[in-house]
Specification:
The chain has 498 residues and is an alpha/beta fold. The protein is built from 15 helices and 23 strands. The strands form seven sheets. It has a seven-stranded mixed beta sheet with strand order 14-17-18-13-12-20-21, sandwiched between helices. A five-stranded parallel beta sheet has the order 9-8-7-10-11, sandwiched between helices. It has a three-stranded antiparallel beta sheet with strand order 5-6-23, with no helix packed on it. The relative contact order is 0.13.
C-alpha cells in the first residue's frame, strides 16, 4: 500500500462494496423501521451507500442480544485462553483487510487514505492485539486476612457495555472502546457516529468471522439524538463509554441519572495548549510538530494543539516557520498520496469552522489560510489557517473549533504561559518545548492536562492512559487502566477451619 498511486487507490475504492445494515446478534439486519440515511463522501459529495437508521427499537434488540450472550456465558465465561485466541484471530483479519478498512474511513469521513492505511487501521489491529494479550496476564487478588479467612478480590465483567464513538477516527475509536470491553468479557453495543459508520460495521463482520459469538458485538448506526439517547437511557446497559463533545458528554451523565445509574465514562472536548520556550534549540522540529499537532487529520482531533503559546523573543521567527509549513500542507483528494490534508467530515462541520474563521478575521491577525476551497467544484475542504497575536479571551483561543485553525499567543514568562495554558474549561492534553530539564518537569507538573508531551505533541501508546481533566471528561482509554471501567470489583469471602 505504501507505493500505491492515486489511480491505484481510486481503482480500489471503486471496487468496494459497502455494508449499511445494522449488525445485531451475529447478522446484518435492516432497522426495524426500515429507515435509512445516506453515507456521503465529503470529498466529492457522492452518496456511498444507505445506512440503517436505527432507533429505540433497534437499540432494545441489540441490548437484548448482548444481555442474552452475557448471561449464558458464551463469551463472559469462555476460558481466557480461548477468548484471547478469538481476539487474535480478529487481529489477523484486520491486518488482512487493512486496505479496505483504510478506504472505508477515508471515503466515509475524508481523512487521507495514506494516514488511514499507515496509522489508523494498523493501530486498530495493534490495540486489539494488546488487549487480547492482557486476557491471560491480568491477575486477581487475595486479601491479607487472618487464619480461617480467605478473601478473593476479582475483577468481573459488568455485562452490556454501550459505546458511542465519534467520526474523526472511526475505526480507532471503535477499537479503543470495544477491544478493552471485549477483553474483559463484556458484550458490546456500539453506536458509531452517523457521519462515519462503515468501518465499524465491517469490524463487526470481521469479529464474527474471527469467532466472536453472536450477540457479543453489535453495531447499531443511527443519529445521536435518537439511537445514542436510547442507549444512554437504556435500563439494561451497565456502562456507557463515550468520546465526543463536552455538551453531549453531559447529556449522557444526565441519562444515567434518569435511568439506572449506569457508569458513564466521557472523553470529551479539548483545546490543547502547546508551549514553546525560547530555550528550545531545535525550533524547526518544534515547528514541524506544532503544524502536525493542529493540521493532522484536518485538525479534527480532540487533543489537537490548537492554542500555541510562544515566548515573545522567538515568536515572529517561529510564526514564519509555521506559515511555510502550513502553506505546504494544502488539502487535496484524500485518495491522492501527494495530498497533505483531506476533507472536513461534512458540510455542517465545514460551515462551523468557517464561522470561527470569518469572525477571527475581524479580531485577530490572519497570517495564512482562512479560505474554504473545493476540488473540481466539490467537497468540504478548509485551508490550514493561522491567526497570530490572538487575544487570550478571543473565541479562537477559548472554543473548540475542531478544524485546521491555529491561534498563536505570545508570552513573556513561564508563569504567564502556564497561567494562560490552564485558563481553559478543558484539560485533555498539552505540549511543552524546552531544552531545560528542570523547566520541563516544573511546567509539566503545573499543567492541568491528562497527557503532557515534552518536546513532541500528542504522545500516545497502548501502554499509557488517554483522557483528560476538567470538562475534557474523566474517561480513560488505552492502558491496563481502561479495563477498570469495564469491570467491577467482586469480593468472595470464605471462612474455613484453620
Amino acid at each position: 500500500m505504501l507505493d500505491y498511486t492515486h489511480e491505484d487507490w481510486k481503482s480500489r475504492a471503486a471496487s468496494l462494496s459497502f455494508r449499511g445494515q445494522a449488525f445485531v446478534d451475529g447478522k446484518f439486519v435492516d432497522a426495524v423501521s426500515g429507515k435509512t440515511f445516506d453515507s456521503i463522501n465529503p470529498a466529492t459529495g457522492a452518496v456511498l451507500t444507505q445506512v440503517a437508521e436505527c432507533d429505540e427499537e433497534d437499540i432494545n434488540r441489540a441490548v437484548a442480544a448482548g444481555r442474552a450472550a452475557f448471561e449464558d456465558g458464551r463469551w463472559s465465561r469462555m476460558a481466557p485462553g480461548d477468548r484471547k485466541a478469538v481476539m487474535l484471530k480478529l487481529v489477523d483479519l484486520i491486518r488482512d483487510n487493512l486496505e479496505e478498512m483504510a478506504l472505508l474511513d477515508s471515503l466515509d469521513m475524508g481523512k487521507l487514505v495514506t494516514d488511514a492505511a499507515t496509522i489508523d487501521a494498523p493501530g486498530s489491529a495493534h490495540f486489539f492485539q494488546w488487549y487480547a494479550e492482557t486476557i491471560d496476564k491480568v491477575y486477581d487478588e487475595v486479601a491479607p486476612t487472618g487464619p480461617g479467612d480467605l478473601a478473593l478480590v476479582k475483577r468481573v465483567p459488568l455485562g452490556v457495555v454501550g459505546a458511542v464513538t465519534p467520526w474523526n477516527f472511526p475505526l480507532d475509536m471503535a477499537t479503543w472502546k470495544a477491544a478493552a470491553a471485549l477483553a474483559a468479557g463484556n458484550s458490546v453495543v456500539l453506536k458509531p457516529a452517523e457521519q462515519s459508520p462503515l468501518s465499524a460495521l465491517r469490524l463487526a463482520e470481521l469479529a464474527a468471522e474471527a469467532g466472536v459469538p453472536d450477540g457479543v458485538f453489535n453495531v447499531v448506526p443511527g443519529f445521536g439524538v435518537v439511537a445514542g439517547k436510547a442507549l444512554g437511557l437504556h435500563m439494561d446497559v451497565d456502562c456507557l463509554a463515550f468520546t465526543g463533545s463536552t455538551a453531549i458528554g453531559k447529556m449522557f451523565m444526565q441519562y444515567s441519572g434518569q435511568s439506572n445509574l449506569k457508569q458513564v465514562w466521557p472523553e470529551t472536548g479539548g483545546k490543547s495548549p502547546n508551549l514553546v520556550f525560547a530555550d528550545c534549540e531545535d525550533l524547526d522540529s518544534a515547528a514541524d510538530m506544532a503544524a502536525f499537532g493542529i493540521f493532522f487529520n484536518q485538525g479534527e482531533v480532540c487533543s489537537a494543539n490548537s492554542r500555541l503559546y510562544v515566548e515573545r523573543s522567538v515568536k515572529d521567527a517561529f510564526v514564519d516557520k509555521l506559515i511555510a509549513r502550513a502553506q505546504a500542507m494544502q488539502p487535496g483528494d484524500p485518495l491522492d498520496p501527494a495530498s497533505k490534508m483531506g476533507a472536513i467530515v461534512d458540510e455542517k462541520q465545514t460551515q462551523g469552522i468557517m464561522r470561527f474563521v470569518e469572525e477571527g478575521k475581524k479580531t485577530a491577525n490572519l497570517v495564512t489560510g482562512g479560505e474554504r476551497i473545493t476540488l473540481d467544484g466539490k467537497g468540504c475542504f478548509v485551508q490550514p489557517t493561522i491567526f497570530d497575536d490572538v487575544d487570550h479571551d478571543n473565541p479562537l483561543a477559548r472554543d473548540e473549533i475542531f478544524g485546521p485553525v491555529l491561534s498563536v499567543i505570545p508570552f513573556d514568562s513561564e508563569d504567564q504561559a502556564v497561567t494562560m495554558a490552564n485558563d481553559s474549561v478543558y484539560g485533555l492534553a498539552a505540549s511543552v518545548w524546552t531544552d531545560n530539564l528542570s523547566r520541563a518537569c516544573r511546567v509539566s507538573d503545573k499543567l492541568m492536562a491528562g497527557t503532557v508531551s515534552v518536546n513532541t505533541v500528542d504522545a500516545l501508546s497502548a501502554m499509557t492512559p488517554f483522557g483528560g481533566m476538567k470538562q475534557s471528561g474523566f474517561g480513560r482509554d488505552l492502558s491496563l487502566h481502561s479495563l477498570e471501567k469495564y469491570t467491577a470489583l467482586k469480593t468472595t469471602w470464605i471462612k474455613y477451619k484453620a
